[in-house]
Amino acid sequence: MLSEAWIHDDRAERRGPGRASVAGIHDGVSRERVGDGPLTHVSDFARIPRRDWLGLADRFYARLDRTFASIDAHGWHRPTAYLGWRARDVLAHMTSAIPVNFREVLGRALAGQPGPPPEFDTFARNAREVARRRTSPIPDLLREFHQELDAILRIYREMSDGDWERPAWFFVGPVHVRTLFLAQFADNVFHERDLLLANRRWTGLDPEHAAPLVDWFLRELRPASFRPERARGLTAAMRYRLHGAAGGEWTMTVRDGACRIEPGGEGRVDVTLVADAETLVAAAQARAPAWVGRLARSLDWSRGPRRAEETVAAITGTTSLLWSVARRRIRVGGDRRIAARLNRSFWHFWERTAMTAKNIARG
């Protein structure tokens, strides 16, 4: 996740007692800055049943509606932290992502055909959908968003618990239907953050849904981005020590060409990453100051029009990580060589198009 140039050699951070425990979805957690007091609890995403995930989503989307209603005409044109887009572009993306990124693969999974579609989640395809809606009035975008959201949530409500665990396909490769729901949920949580940050009203993640979503991000989505061909012969352990509303401790183990991340902080590790959970996920998802996005948009021609969106994502993604490390909001300590090797063993956000193409080719 971080380039080797940003890693400090701090072997004192390799050890530390496990201070996180698995908690239920309604356990209270406090917001903290990095290093302030004990770590918050972890919610185990895999132990939350479908009906409770739907309840969490209902409460979040009710709040999202209030967020939409609070943004005035000027606010929809404010620049955001996401890929140089305005707030209205983020709304257009949230709307188009449902049919483009989720509905087709969900339908294929429920029909017993969990393989990849011919075209899927490339940056270019999403950008085309946003551009197509660039002149749509905000009320029309909101209406379309609610229609698409209601339709796909209805499918999740009406399916069985067995359907929830059916095999499916996403840009990271083979997954379960549950993963499609969680990916859409997590995307929209951070897109609400994009909208509120742009309008200077963001107050932080809600731990009720953020804690299990961060647990999912680390334990399922992160290992799915692992590149075993780049980790041949590598045996390593890394501790994630995260603070804030969705904090806790997790340990990543890479061995025999496989990656596994589990909650807990026991045992010796080679590398330790310390950060606020929100900061880590935002950096991993290429959130950067709005001016960086505008600069990236001015340079998106540099690798040709077909790779314009990847260029923007690469600029905002690397800048976000550099910015977070320079301000010590993300700290990586331990063995420099192993940390650098681990960094090269995962796909990055801005490589999503190549990752998707490779996974489609695999079938």
The main pleated sheet reads as: 5 strands, mixed
Total strands: the figure is: 9
Work out the oligomeric state of the chains in this entry.
single chain
How many domains, as an integer? 2
Kindly report the spatial arrangement of strands forming the biggest sheet. Answer: 7-6-5-8-9
Helical coverage, percent range:
40-55%
CATH superfamily name of the largest domain?
Answer: dinb family like domain
Structural class estimated from helices and strands: alpha/beta
Element-by-element helix/strand order: EEHHHHHEEHHEEEEHHHEHH
Specify the overall morphology: globular
CATH topology of the largest domain: Four Helix Bundle (Hemerythrin (Met), subunit A)
Query: How much strand?
Result: 5-15%
Spatial gap, N to C terminus: 26 Å
Question: What's the CATH architecture name of the largest domain?
Answer: Up-down Bundle
* Uncertain segments: 1-42
Q: Report the CATH C-level class of the largest domain.
A: Mainly Alpha
- The number of distinct helices, counting runs of at least 4 residues, comes to 12
Overall pLDDT score? 88
- Structural Rg: 20 Å
